[in-house]
Amino acid sequence: MSDKIYRVDMSNLTYKIEDVPADWMGLGGRGLTSTIIAAEVDPECHPLGPNNKMVFAPGLLSGTTAANSGRNSLGTKSPLTGGIKESNVGGTIAGVMAKLGVKALIIEGIPEDDSTFYHVHVTKEKVLIEAVPELVGKNNYFVLDAMEEKYNKKVAVMTIGRPGEMKMLISNISVRDPKGKLRSHGRGGVGAVMGSKKIKCITVDAQNYKEVTYAQPDKFKEASKVFTKALQDNPISGEGLPAFGTNVLINIINEAGGLPSHNFRSGHSENAEEICGETMAEKIKERGGSTTHGCHAGCVIQCSQTYNDKDGNYLTSGFEYEMIWAFGANFGIKDLDQIAKIDALMDDLGVDAIETGVTFGVAVDAEIIKFGDGVEAYRILAEEIANGTPLGRVIGGGAGNLGKLYGLVRVPVVKNQSIPAYEPRAIKGQGITYVTTPMGADHTAGYAVATNILNSGGFVDPLKKDGQVELSRNLQIASAAVDSTGMCIFVAFPALDDPKCLPALIDMINARFGISLDGDDVTNLGSTILKIEHAFNLKAGLGSADDRVPEFMKYEKLPPHDAIWDFTNEEIDEFWNF
Amino acid sequence: MSDKIYRVDMSNLTYKIEDVPADWMGLGGRGLTSTIIAAEVDPECHPLGPNNKMVFAPGLLSGTTAANSGRNSLGTKSPLTGGIKESNVGGTIAGVMAKLGVKALIIEGIPEDDSTFYHVHVTKEKVLIEAVPELVGKNNYFVLDAMEEKYNKKVAVMTIGRPGEMKMLISNISVRDPKGKLRSHGRGGVGAVMGSKKIKCITVDAQNYKEVTYAQPDKFKEASKVFTKALQDNPISGEGLPAFGTNVLINIINEAGGLPSHNFRSGHSENAEEICGETMAEKIKERGGSTTHGCHAGCVIQCSQTYNDKDGNYLTSGFEYEMIWAFGANFGIKDLDQIAKIDALMDDLGVDAIETGVTFGVAVDAEIIKFGDGVEAYRILAEEIANGTPLGRVIGGGAGNLGKLYGLVRVPVVKNQSIPAYEPRAIKGQGITYVTTPMGADHTAGYAVATNILNSGGFVDPLKKDGQVELSRNLQIASAAVDSTGMCIFVAFPALDDPKCLPALIDMINARFGISLDGDDVTNLGSTILKIEHAFNLKAGLGSADDRVPEFMKYEKLPPHDAIWDFTNEEIDEFWNF
Asked: Is some CB atom of chain B closer than 8 A to the CB atom of A1?
């Protein structure tokens, strides 16, 4: 049976199961979510109003045996940026949806009765929508446990915590990973959109599915083998990430002078030794945790981990570079265990590591909290944010809005979304990605760090302007295509350096569907996606004046390189000429 | 001696007194402030950063004996809207500046040492800039008293209260009126810009000036007589406003079904009887107040008043329709005395009546406060806002930002600025002004209420779309020109209906400067100003997607007429085709 579009209308609690329109047939992941949002959502609508939609779609290779193909895309109009958003996540959801034949799940409308929250359960034949008053006010793990119990673990789960219910702009949509921990559709306040639709959780039947089929099974297997080997042979995806996790980047980026510290006042952190990946790996080994853990089935990189406390008790997992940077370097907590405790709490609340962490950095300038005070940060999360107090709302609105409330000028956001762990002044290619991607400041949209710092795909000097616009454009086109396959962003490393990797990826898609894409088709797909997203944003009111770093980066020098952001507007705007 | 440009650079506490460039010679008020801001301020700059400027300029007729010519313009990039702002005010400042020969006072830069606030004193020959630690943390009347004592009352004063120091987006810049009360450069968070420049107060020497001169004194006198008579003969400016103040509008707009109530849920308020101008005039008479008071010298309308409490003690003045609507109808306080107490407190704090009042209306939806709870609103102002607590910051950021923090969809703002006391759905010409004016929702930018409701300048049915775009455009062009003369907005009433009024106004300008403008010149001036402002906004990132009412007004019917906002985007965007 062919894949279907599952469409849920929350305004009357009904659903339809529709055939896939011919135009959408060849699309998956980001390509599909952005196409549907652009086709069906008024770019001028209020992101939390009845006319916004959420589209969940697995990638083209999700559900297959291809390594690292377990990413699921969510598309919507972001209440944080006001523009289009695609956010993808690992966990079990992509595989389950693909195997069940859910090409996309579209959620539209808002219930008239907003006095409760609903649970949406998707099965092959139908969608159940029922009120779950018993889950209202609960956080993610409570919901996860309740759903796993209800369905005897044969279910994929997506959920929001209390901040999502309260429509806070730092809120995520969390999903279960293979070990029962949480991963998140992050950035852009997507949890608030789910909250606005009064959906507490979405489950997808993981019992009654069939394995996906392959038009050319042998060809698929062969390509898959080449692809897996490319991932394993690459020094970053095959060695660095498995050994130290993403947090291997702390020392690398710090040494490059591009690790934002003290709310983006320096590119160098005095805390690096205490919080780096090497220190973390040591502690994990000492304490009986695990340095390797895959966020979705079929992951051969295993960059996640299990992090225990001093007594060997479980503290957190999915403990990533961005989280550790935001709270450790930028906000200044020296104690990795304290950061881990905050990480676990944030998973349960369902709030975004980057947006929340950067907001705490800005909150230091607002004199709300002292630099490095992890105890108070934990308290604010557990008491103020979880309960939606005025202070909780102030932090829960994200860095850009906090800056507006406190009259601050040094607010590191692009399109109102917090800038991640790479300083745009010192890693300029990454800066071009931040300002031009339709997503708002997003490090995954075109990871120029690869070529600026990691010598992957050649080398472009991070401190010079030359070549950065072209680098970022090529990476963003490639990423938009990769985000449509269900592949994890880290396939970029072998793809940039191993000539066998990308052809193998394309071969897998061809073998899965019995088609014959080539490299140009993939590039065209990426270009088309970017242009669709950019056009949506222009109509939504995000034009070239929004493709900018915060102004202070143009006149404030960043130590240690005394780097400033020196691109002219014309140089940036040139990005869109393709 | 000819007029000069006074330019203060706060980055090094220096000043220059410059000749007026030829291009600026024929400009005053809004025409001059918008021209200077567009010429000298990067539209992409942070409004609270070092590259924004403030320009104060009296109107072309300010300082003359012309009736109602006492308005002073302030131009800046607004931190609330992100676009250009012109805000004009009565009081004594315009006349004093004009007589002293200050064509414009430009403030630029931000002090390196931000540990204190400064006092800027402008005299004919020089500008004094000195730290005033003793005024930091004080509110407006304290500053006013201190300055009047220091200069033996021979001084015009502009000041910010604590919210302005804290750069809150609801903050105004207040100025002394002829009776020692306060008027305000309101809207758009202009107090925050002054706060960002670390200026607590600006004084202008009112002792050593010369009366303005006239190229043709007799012609001026004659035209002035005709103009004054037109103001006095008009039923609105000559009778309604003097008798009941601006608050005469409560009953009129309520009966028209266009008085926003319960956070813009209805066009009709159940509180009208208790808060209307007629009730207010009665109370004033009973309690020994005064129904007439001019906000600047030479005012013949005298729409302001002195409002006493039950015991005959002074409570407030400058007690206007917008304030009484916002707190009485939209937020629901029935007790006029309670609203008056809040008004007096807000004058002292220096916060905007419309922005603050509408924010309290939205705060009801956020469950921060109960509808109509004036005691709690007073407490929040006096304790939370004055002290910059998290709750104070939440309210102090204005309605649009509060809506973002609390995930609200029903947020009545245009370009993030609160919509004033006329419902766009029920008074559609006024709605067109809100969405198209470069100022953000601003009722004075093109007061279509005149022709939609008051039968001034003909009649255009307020509930129909026909003719509204043209009406608003004509009014906005005329208003931009009038805002350049220093004239009060209420000259619009005779100007629309008495064929002798506008020619007399033009004759006064001609006689003052020895020039020969005609009606077309004035229209061209107005058009040019609008286009300069619009071009600035486009570069600042405010495009057609920002020329919109909040989306809920497109699908939520407004009682009693069940009116919706039914303009297409194309119909609105047609506004700029001139």
From this structure: no
Share of chain B above pLDDT 70, in %: 100
* A42-73 burial code (b ≥16 CB/10 A, e <16): ebbbbbbbbbbbbbbbbbbbbbbbbbbbbbbb
Residues 117-146, chain B: which have Cβ within 8 Å of A? Answer: none
Q: A122-143: per-residue pLDDT in tens?
A: 999 999 999 999 999 999 999 9
Q: Does B507 touch chain A (CB under 8 A)?
A: no
Q: Looking at beta carbons, which residues of chain A come within 8 Å of B389? A: 390
Contacts of B554 (CB under 8 A, 6+ apart): B564, B565, B566
Within chain A, which residues score under 70 in pLDDT? 1
Contact B561/A at CB under 8 A: no
Classify residue A577 as exposed, middle or buried by CB count within 10 Å of its CB (0-12, 13-18, 19+): exposed
Three-state DSSP string of B318-343: CCCHHHHHHHHHHCCCCCHHHHHHHH
As a whole-number percent, the residues of chain B with pLDDT over 90 amount to 95
ipTM of the complex: 0.97
Residue A447 and residue A430: Cα distance in Å, rounded? 6
C-alpha to C-alpha distances, A208 to A56, A97, A123, A231, nearest whole angstrom: 20, 11, 8, 32
Residue B185: enclosing H or E segment and its boundaries? strand B182-185
Q: Which domains does chain A have, with CATH numbers?
A: 4-205 (3.60.9.10), 260-285+310-422 (1.10.569.10)
Q: A329: closest CA among A394, A252, A404, A243? A: A252
Give the residue among A188, A190, A150 at the shortest CA–CA distance from A174. Answer: A190
Residue B410 CA: distances (Å) to CA of B291, B368, B558: 36, 15, 13
CB contact under 8 A, B79 and A404: yes
Does B406 sit within 8 Å of A401, measured CB to CB?
no
Give CA–CA dist A374/A354, Å, rounded. 16
In this predicted model, what pLDDT tens digit does every residue of A178-203 receive, in sequence order? Answer: 888 999 999 999 999 999 999 999 99
Chain B closest-CA separation from residue A387 CA (Å): 12
Query: What three-state secondary structure class fits A466?
Result: coil
| Three state DSSP letters for A2-28 | CCEEEEEECCCCEEEEEECCHHHCCCC
Q: Does A47 touch chain B (CB under 8 A)?
A: no
- pTM for the full model? 0.97
Tell me the pLDDT tens digit for each residue of B258-289.
999 999 999 999 999 999 999 999 999 999 99
Strands A155-159 and A173-176 come out as antiparallel
pLDDT digits (tens, 9 = 90+) for A376-430: 999 999 999 999 999 999 999 999 999 999 999 999 999 999 999 999 999 999 9
| Distance between CA atoms of residues A252 and A403, nearest Å | 30
- CB pair distance less than 8 Å for B48 and A391: no
Residue A355 C-alpha, separation from nearest chain B C-alpha, in angstroms:
14
Nearest chain A residue (CA) to B363: A390
pLDDT for A1 equals 55
Residues of A in Cβ contact (< 8 Å) with B167: 406-407
Q: Is residue B535 over pLDDT 60?
A: yes
On whether any CB of chain B is under 8 Å from the CB of A535, the answer is no
Question: Which residues in chain B are contacts of A400 at CB distance < 8 A?
Answer: none
What's the CA gap between A376 and A372, in Å, rounded? 9
